[in-house]
Design a protein that fits this description.
The complex is a heterodimer of chains A (290) and B (349).
Chain A lengths: L1 H31 L6 H18 L4 H24 L7 H23 L15 E3 L2 E3 L1 H23 L1 H11 L1 H6 L4 H26 L6 H16 L4 H22 L6 H13 L13
Helix pairs in contact in A: 1-5, 1-8, 1-9, 1-10, 2-3, 2-4, 2-8, 2-9, 3-8, 5-6, 5-8, 6-8, 9-10, 9-11, 10-11
Chain B lengths: L3 H16 L3 H26 L7 H17 L1 E6 L2 E5 L4 H23 L4 H21 L1 H4 L12 E4 L3 E4 L3 H24 L1 H11 L1 H6 L4 H27 L9 H14 L6 H16 L5 H18 L4 H24 L10
Antiparallel strand pairs in B: 1-2, 3-4
Helix pairs in contact in B: 2-7, 2-10, 2-11, 2-12, 3-4, 3-5, 3-10, 4-10, 7-8, 7-10, 8-10, 11-12
C-alpha cells in the first residue's frame, strides 16, 4: 500500500508535465491540423536552454526556466512562419514529411552543439526530500508539479478568457467563417504554434533537471504527447490534461508492478487499445477547443 | 529504345562485380540494395494506397529477427513451466519464415490500424514499431536484448544434384540481393498493374467514391499491407544474414525515415522512384562522410527532405518523366511538320 501511494505521487508529479506536453500538441493538432513531429524537439530545446543558462553560463536556474519558455515560443513561431505558412493549403501528409525533416534537423543540431553525452542540471533545491508519512518526494519534483499546474491553469485562462483564445476557438470551429468575421487566421496559427511550442519547452525545462538531458530525449516525448492527445481526443484540452495524468499513472504502475523495461511501451499500448475501441479518444471529441 | 533501356540497366547491374573490385563500394551497394527493397515495399503502401505508414521498420526488423532466430534456434520459457525449444534450421528457411512472420504481422496491423486514417494511422504505425523495439530490447531470453544476436550464418543455397553453395563472399550476396530485388520489383509491378492495383489507386484518389462503387477498401489495404510487410521482412532477413549481427537498434525510427526519404525523393507511386531515391540516399553518406560528422549528415538529410517536399513534391522520377514527355512532344511536333508533305492520311509516324 505504501509503495502504491509512492507510485501514485510520482505519477501525479510526472502527469503535470505530461499534461503540458499534451496540451501543447493537442492545440496545434486541433487548430492547425498539423501532426507536429518537432514537438519533442522543442521539449529537448527547453531542457537544453535551462542547461545553457543554469549550468553552462552559471546564471540563475529560475531565469533559465523563463528563458526556456520564451525561447521555445520564439522558435515555434519561427518554424510556423518559415515551414508551415507556405504549406497551409497542401495535404496533411506533405506537412508531416516537412515536420519529420525539421525534426531530424533539430535533433542533430542539438547533437552537434551539445554532444551525445547526457547532461545533468543542478538545481538550487535541497537534496533532502519532503517526507509525508510513507511517501517521500524531492523538493524539485514538488516545484515541477506546482509550475506545471500553474502553466496548465494559465493556458486555460488564455484560451477561455482572452480575445486571442476566443479567436483560436473560433478558428478551430470553422476556419473560413472565423476569417470572414475578421479573425486574423495567420496570426492565430502562429500564436497557436508558438503557445504549443512554449508549453513543450516548459515541460522539457521542468523535466530536464529531474532526469538527464540528451539529444534523443525528444523522441519519446513526441510519441508520448501523441499518446496523450489520442487518449484525450483531438483538440480537447481537458482531455489532454486528464490524458497526461492517466499516461503517467499507467507508466508508473506498469513500471512498478510489471517491468520497468516496458515503461515506455505503456503509452503505445494505450494508443493501440484506445484507437481500437474508441478512436475518438476517451473523452467524446470536443467540437471546439476547451 | 523503350525495350532496350531496361535491358541496358539489367546488364549494367549484373556486370558490376566484374569491373568493380572495391569491397567497400560493393558493401554499400549491397546494403543500399537491401534498403531499396524495403523502400519498394514501403512505396506499395505510401505511394499506391496513399497510407503514410511510419512503422515500416517494424516489418523489416521482425523479418530480420524471425529469420535470425529460426536459423540460430532458441529456448524460451513462454509461461512458467511451458518452454518452447526451437532447433537451428538452415538460413534459407529463416528467410521464408522471416517473410511469413512479417507478412502475418502486416496482416494484424493492417486489420487493426486501417480502422483509422490520416494522422491517427501514422501514430498507430509509429507506436507499433516502438513497441516491437522495446520487446526486442527487453525480451532478453529470446533476443539477447542489447547484447544482440550474433554469429548469424550466411545462406546456403542448394540445388538437388548440383550440390550446395554457401554465400560467404560479398559478390555472392550482391547477386542474391539483385535477384530478390528483381523478384520484388516484378511482384510489385504486377500487383499495381492488376485489378488489385487499380483498386488501390482508386481508393488513394478518392476513398469514398471507391467504396461507393463496390471496392472493398479495407480488404485491398490489408492486402497491400501484407505484401508490403512480407517484402520488408525479406529485406530484413537479407540484412541480418549479411551483417551476421542484429540488435534492437534495427527498429529505430530513423530507418523508417530513411525509407520514407528514399521513396518521396525518387517519387512515390512510381516503380522506379524507390530505386532512384535509394541510390541517392545509399551513396550520399559515402560522399558526405569524409567531409562531415554524422550529425551534419543527418541535418543535411532533414534539410534535403524539406527542400524536396517544397520544390519537387512529386519526386524526381515524375519530374524527369514530365520533362522527357515535353521534350519528345516538341521533337514529335517538329518531325510531324517536316514529314507533313509526304505522309499518306492514316499512316502512323
Amino acid at each position: 500500500m505504501d509503495q502504491f501511494l509512492q507510485h501514485l505521487v510520482n505519477a501525479v508529479i510526472l502527469g503535470g508535465t505530461y499534461a503540458l506536453l499534451g496540451i501543447g500538441l493537442t492545440l496545434i493538432f486541433g487548430i492547425m491540423r498539423v501532426v507536429n513531429f518537432t514537438h519533442g524537439e522543442l521539449y529537448a530545446f527547453g531542457a537544453y536552454t535551462v542547461y545553457l543558462v543554469a549550468a553552462a553560463l552559471g546564471l540563475d536556474f529560475f531565469l533559465g526556466l523563463a528563458v526556456a519558455v520564451i525561447a521555445g515560443a520564439l522558435l515555434g513561431a519561427l518554424i510556423e512562419i518559415t515551414l508551415l505558412r507556405p504549406l497551409r493549403s497542401t495535404d496533411i501528409d506533405v506537412v508531416m514529411l516537412v515536420m519529420i525533416g525539421a525534426w531530424i534537423v533539430m535533433q542533430n543540431t542539438e547533437l552537434l552543439v551539445w554532444g551525445g553525452v547526457a547532461k545533468a542540471i543542478v538545481t538550487p533545491f535541497p537534496d533532502a526530500p519532503l517526507v509525508i508519512g510513507p511517501v517521500s518526494v524531492s523538493w524539485l519534483r514538488v516545484f515541477v508539479l506546482v509550475v506545471a499546474l500553474l502553466l496548465i491553469v494559465a493556458s486555460y485562462v488564455l484560451i477561455h478568457r482572452t480575445k486571442l483564445g476566443k479567436a483560436m476557438r473560433a478558428t478551430f470551429q470553422d476556419r473560413d467563417t472565423a476569417a470572414l468575421m475578421g479573425v486574423n487566421i495567420r496570426g492565430v496559427y502562429t500564436a497557436t504554434f508558438a503557445l504549443g511550442s512554449a508549453l513543450a519547452a516548459a515541460a522539457g525545462a521542468l523535466l530536464g533537471p529531474v532526469f538527464l538531458v540528451t539529444p534523443t530525449m525528444g523522441d519519446l516525448a513526441s510519441l508520448k504527447a501523441f499518446a496523450i492527445v489520442i487518449l484525450g481526443g483531438l483538440g480537447n484540452i481537458t482531455g489532454a490534461t486528464i490524458g497526461g495524468f492517466i499516461l503517467a499513472l499507467v507508466e508508473e504502475i506498469g513500471a512498478g508492478y510489471i517491468s520497468s523495461g516496458y515503461r515506455d511501451a505503456m503509452g503505445f499500448l494505450i494508443i493501440i487499445v484506445v484507437l481500437l475501441f474508441k478512436p475518438t479518444g476517451l473523452f467524446a471529441r470536443a467540437e471546439r477547443v476547451g | 529504345m523503350k525495350r532496350a533501356l531496361p535491358a541496358f540497366w539489367l546488364v549494367a547491374i549484373l556486370t558490376v562485380p566484374l569491373w568493380l573490385h572495391d569491397q567497400y563500394i560493393l558493401h554499400i551497394l549491397i546494403t543500399t540494395g537491401i534498403f531499396i527493397i524495403a523502400a519498394m515495399s514501403l512505396n506499395l503502401l505510401l505511394g499506391y494506397t496513399g497510407q503514410l505508414s511510419l512503422g515500416h521498420v517494424a516489418f523489416f526488423g521482425i523479418g530480420a529477427y524471425a529469420s535470425a532466430l529460426t536459423t540460430l534456434g532458441f529456448d524460451v520459457e513462454l509461461l512458467p513451466g511451458f518452454r518452447v525449444v526451437h532447433q537451428p534450421r538452415p538460413a534459407i528457411v529463416g528467410f521464408f519464415v522471416g517473410m511469413l512472420v512479417a507478412g502475418l504481422s502486416g496482416y494484424m496491423i493492417g486489420r487493426l490500424s486501417f480502422k483509422v486514417r490520416g494522422a491517427y494511422f501514422v501514430i498507430v504505425t509509429i507506436s507499433f514499431a516502438e513497441v516491437t523495439r522495446l520487446v526486442a530490447l527487453n525480451w532478453v531470453e529470446l533476443t539477447q536484448g542489447p547484447l544482440a544476436l550474433t554469429n548469424i550464418p550466411p545462406y546456403t543455397l542448394g540445388l538437388p544434384g548440383l550440390g550446395y553453395y554457401t554465400l560467404w563472399s560479398k559478390v555472392a550476396y550482391y547477386y542474391l540481393v539483385v535477384a530478390v530485388g528483381l523478384v520484388a520489383y516484378v511482384v510489385i509491378s504486377r500487383l499495381v498493374g492488376s485489378r488489385v492495383g487499380r483498386a488501390m489507386i482508386a481508393l488513394k484518389e478518392n476513398e469514398t467514391l471507391a467504396s461507393s462503387v463496390g471496392i472493398d477498401v479495407t480488404r485491398y489495404l490489408v492486402l497491400a499491407a501484407v505484401v508490403s510487410a512480407a517484402l520488408a521482412g525479406g529485406a530484413g532477413s537479407l540484412y541480418a544474414h549479411y551483417l551476421k549481427i542484429i540488435d534492437p537498434d534495427i527498429f529505430l525510427f530513423i530507418y523508417t525515415v530513411t525509407m520514407v526519404i528514399m521513396v518521396i525523393t525518387g517519387g512515390k507511386g512510381t516503380l522506379a522512384g524507390p530505386i532512384v531515391g535509394g541510390i541517392i540516399f545509399g551513396f550520399l553518406p559515402v560522399i558526405v562522410r569524409p567531409i562531415a560528422a554524422p550529425a551534419v549528415q543527418w541535418i543535411l538529410y532533414g534539410a534535403l527532405m524539406i527542400v524536396i517536399v517544397f520544390i519537387l513534391p512529386t519526386g524526381i522520377v515524375p519530374a524527369v518523366e514530365r520533362w522527357l514527355a515535353k521534350w519528345t512532344q516538341s521533337r514529335h511536333k517538329a518531325s510531324q511538320v517536316a514529314l507533313a508533305g509526304n505522309s499518306k492520311p492514316g499512316e502512323r509516324l
